[in-house]
## 1
Amino acid sequence: MKIAIIGGGITGLTAAYALAKKDHQVTVFEKEKTLGGLAHGFKLPDWDWHLESAYHHLFTNDTAILGLIKKLGLSDKLIITRPVTATLWNGVSYPLDSPIHLLRFPALPLVDRLRTGVLLAALKLNPFWQPFEWLTAKQLFQSIGGRRAWEAIWEPLMIGKFGTYADRVAASWLWARIKKRTQKLYYIKGGFHTLISALEKAIIQRGGTIKKNCTYTVSSRGAFDRLLLTIPTPTTIPHLHAQVLILETKEPILKNTYWLNVTDRSFPFLAVVAHTNMIDKKYYGSHHITYFGNYLPEGHPYLSMTKEQLLKKFWPYIKKLNPKLRSNEVTKLYIFTGFYAQPVHELHYSRRAPKLKTSIKGLYLANMDSIYPWDRGTNYAVELGLHAARSIDRRG
């Protein structure tokens, strides 16, 4: 069959790779100049590796993408790390990525720390997500973890990420966040660009065509037997835009922490991710790389700001994280916005999520809205791409 795939992100490339292996004639249309979607990266002349425009890593149980990496002969490119995840509470950063750290967390009385631990352990061990679609994350957490723990830890993070949707997010989303997290993380030598380049090469070697900086037109429809759409379709489901400001600095902004969750909602950002506290700075010109992340609704003022304007807004709060940091230590500045990157998982989300097979003959849909109960991630993009390829191949 002749198959057109719209979108050269991880889902589209994985589907193209799998279908090309089945000897289908595959053409990928990507409107940007680069492939990879939300995982695409960039490289400066004095850097040895590419850097993702938005922070990325893999969990050790991300079996779909780890399997793809193995098939592409890239297993030797994997780096395993054990970076620190912390939470900013009352102006102090506390490690909060293990049971011991939870028991030491000063924001909660001992009974609430124990209740929270019971909840997190139960979510980790429970294999079933479907019952959690019927209640909100807030209801679940407060009923088991307790109101004080919800208000101290989770509520500010939920508000920071989902804004006005925070109280409507299904507990199945919370289940998925806890279920999949691992203390150890993988990264790919050279960045995720290594995987994207290998996929591109493998697709072309198998007779596939990749058209970058090219938009699919309706007039092309008759030239293909099947059409797979992998771009966002924000029509029936609420979405938020993911935005990151990336600072390259001479000195580190965070001392030892890789990922810092910010519970203080007076801060203008939700997460601080110090990439070079996970990966050696030597690959990036011996400078430190730090992301400042947000999820923003349509029309938010940050979406219309320049990177310089955003830095000016963030700077007083960055200084709170590191009072010794001086503005002249910021050597470079980047901004990236992933529009419609974050679907909001409300109650009974599975009933509303788009299905792979559409009502239009020969048209298939596979994007981040379809990976429930899981949150966004390259592992699920690979999983979805493989599922789409199998379905299209069978229906051929």
Note: The chain is about 30% helix and 20% strand.
## 2
Amino acid sequence: METIGIPLMDSVLKMFPWDKSKEYQNLVERYGEGIRSVLEELLLLPLLHFDSVNDLSESIGKDKNQYYDLLKDPKINWIKLLQEITWYLFICILRVYQNSESKSFHSRWRIRILLDDTLIRRWSLKMAGVYNLYNHIDKHYMYAQKVVFLAVSIGDGKFVFPLVYAFTEPKTHPIHQKHTQIAVDILSALYEFTKEQGLTFQGLRLVGDSGYTSKVIVSAAKTMGLEFYGSLTASWTLILQDGSTIGVKSLKNGRIPAQARKNSYFEKEYYRLIAYHPDLGVVALSITPYIEAGTHETKYWAYVCSNPDIACHLIIREHTIRWKIEQMFKTFKHNIGIRFYQGISISGQHAWFALTCLRFIFVQFAFKISSRHPSLRWNISHKKFGLAAMMRYIRNHYRLSFNSKRDKRLHYSLLRFSA
């Protein structure tokens, strides 16, 4: 797929960093130069509004087995392919960030490493990585894959992309690891890779939710020179500056031994505390109100930062930025096909997860290019040009009418330019 006739996508395909991966070079040696075309077609499958690999192969006249054989190939290290590309991007951005001497640049384009996990609902235990998991949102158990993600956010969420993912295993599995330990292992590997490139984590922040606020995570962050931002569950107990102890449960219910504050950066009142914990050390707490769903009572979030000198509104802002990874998960599940069924084997699942992460990076590149070139986003307002608008335009202008018998075929321009 040297070109597909859609200028925006063609522009991204030209710059996509396949060649930065040794695993990709191994694929070229095994499959030939045509493997790039196959990978790119799989990458764009849901963006071009195809429903399946069969749909794609029928529309552009290719044998579907070349796609399935690639997805099922157990010799391909899909995690390595993804990691080599994403870590290359991370190092490029980090080098520019740390080589700049401008404090303003460091403030506006600060790099955050985001930690979180998500559940991918499945319908059979036969699929790789699936077991019975509790869904805390819907309050019931379901068959799902639990996936730990590390992602990077540049600036105030201006550019977000996944670094790497890992499946978790049930507690009964011989190689079971806690999700926090999985995150630390990945973070440690990234840290060692960063040092090999002559760089450090100086100036970077590590942001996670309450599930990633633990001794092992905070200790790793301190060792690597990262500022840690997290949130506390009700079970934590802290020691205040006057020597008294207080439970986070009391803070969450509004029993806060401090005066409310206000700031132009934050519309609601908040509270600031300095406290100590044997595992976390000295930390700053920023306590903010919210209305609890269902009861409509006022409850409080207890956000924590390993830097006790940080301003409260900055702690709050970091957790606002953290929601970018939740938006990434939403995009994965609803728009770019992470839940598509592409086989039950571990190789097939890793193939599709890795391709979905790369597809998300492709979309981020497309947004960055289109922001500078209005014609590439079809002169749609930059504020209104999102993934839904892009996919809708492709569906409406590069597909035949849905009333046609060939409603699954692309417009002639794609057929004409496809390899």
Note: Confidence is low (pLDDT under 50) at residues 400-419.
## 3
Amino acid sequence: MNTNTRIQLTDSTMDIIVKMSEGNPGAMNVLMQMIKDGGAIDPDDFMGGIGAVLALDSHGIYGTDIYILNNDICDRDLTKMLAVLRSCQLGYFNGDLLADACNRQDRSGKALIPVDELCDKVKERLPNFGKI
């Protein structure tokens, strides 16, 4: 778990996107999608899409790593990406391993994360997840 989180209580949505994306356009796009659609995908997250962004921050996943998680590991499927993040919160997957996988720009991180299995576990635990 990352002890040097970037998001502050006083940050605006734009501040959050800028801090988390590190200027990476792909990460900016993913973060905006998370904020916009995250609450509908995971209605049990009381913080809506911001909850998943906070999860990224707590695991130290920023910039290019956000893009890699969405694009390479989760095949550009936001529901899968949110399920992987939620699986860490639920104790099904280790957040440090997730951060390591996202940091691998050679696509080798995909083999470290059983995305479909984690999605199934999250949907079993949270029946409203992904029913948009």
Note: The chain has a mean pLDDT of 96.
